Amino acid sequence: MLTVAVLISGTGSNLRALLDAAAAADFPARVVVVGADRDADGLAHAEEFGIPSFTVPFTHYATREEWGRELGAQLEVWQPDLVVLSGLMRLLPTELVERWAPQLINTHPAYLPEFPGAHGVRDALAAGVTETGASVIVVDGGVDTGPILAQERVPVLPGDTEHTLHERIKPVERRLLIETVRQIAAGELDLAATASAPS
């Protein structure tokens, strides 16, 4: 059984989807802890499912590195097989990425390498493209630059706003995340091999 830690910043909709999936007896992974960088609404999902949680508020630390060390210390307690960034709106310090990668994955609301960064949906609309997408990647030292594990296109419709487009991307993101975690747990996806493969 693959053990998973999930890190969030907001409502935790991807976390909720993963918890629902993992509640099935035949799903080969279990969320063992949920962490957040603030008092996030999504922590309520962990409470509902009886999953332990922790908070390491970013604003309580003088530097990103100090925050990252405490976040890392909390993760070490649980020794998860996989760490999932699920809407964590902070760049992880290099030391933390190097400790957990490639067992460190993230979802992104764009068809990478198109529109990386915190405003992928807004940037896609601003560029006037007819389609964008969702991706699941291994986290590396860059901004949404790691190896791509799964992705799918999502059309941009006439009249789309950032909100309406994002709402259509989210279900795709959730589905890709759940399937990626399942594949990792089932041994169908080798993160180490993916991360070391030439791009």
UniProtKB/TrEMBL annotation:
SUPFAM superfamilies recorded: Formyltransferase (SSF53328)
Keyword Transferase on entry: yes
EC number: 2.1.2.2
Gene3D superfamilies hit by this protein: Formyl transferase, N-terminal domain
One Pfam match: Formyl_trans_N
InterPro entries associated with the record: Formyl_transf_N, Formyl_transf_N_sf, GART
Domain called Formyl transferase N-terminal: residue spans: 4-181
Domain of life: Bacteria
GO MF annotation list: phosphoribosylglycinamide formyltransferase activity
Catalytic residues, chain numbering: H108 (proton donor)
Positions bearing the site annotation: Raises pKa of active site His: D144
Residues annotated for N(1)-(5-phospho-beta-D-ribosyl)glycinamide binding in this entry: G12, S13, N14
Pathway: Purine metabolism; IMP biosynthesis via de novo pathway; N(2)-formyl-N(1)-(5-phospho-D-ribosyl)glycinamide from N(1)-(5-phospho-D-ribosyl)glycinamide (10-formyl THF route): step 1/1
Assigned keywords, A-Z: Purine biosynthesis, Transferase
PANTHER family: PHOSPHORIBOSYLGLYCINAMIDE FORMYLTRANSFERASE
Family membership noted in the UniProt record: Belongs to the GART family.
The protein, known as: Phosphoribosylglycinamide formyltransferase
Species in which this protein is naturally found: Microbacterium fluvii
